[in-house]
Amino acid sequence: KEPAATIVETLKDITLCEGEDAVFECKVSRETNQDAQWFLGDVPLQSNEMNEIRVQGTRHTLILRKVTLEDCGPISFKVGQHTSAA
């Protein structure tokens, strides 16, 4: 059984203007098959035309495209029992 990954680089708060892309990055301690999930408020996010979720090694990136005021809110990243929020 693989050891649990922990978050080693947390999310940072950002401020944008409407229409800009929001980019959030989190780094975990190791590459893992554990489920990693992004949330806007309590809503789990999926990769689609408005959101892009990338994993490059231990770096997890969320891009929210052309944000609006409705996108304002807490973003969180969860892996295993660990959470980071911005």
TrEMBL record:
Question: Which cellular compartments is it found in?
Answer: Cytoplasm
Question: What InterPro entries has UniProt attached to this entry?
Answer: Ig-like_dom (IPR007110), Ig-like_dom_sf (IPR036179), Ig-like_fold (IPR013783), Ig_I-set (IPR013098), Obscurin/Obscurin-like_Reg (IPR052385)
Broad class of the protein's primary localization: cytoplasm
Q: What is this protein called?
A: OBSCN protein
Q: What region holds the Ig-like domain?
A: 3-86
Q: GO CC terms on record?
A: cytoplasm
Which SUPFAM superfamilies does its entry note? Immunoglobulin
Q: Taxonomic lineage per UniProt?
A: Eukaryota, Metazoa, Chordata, Craniata, Vertebrata
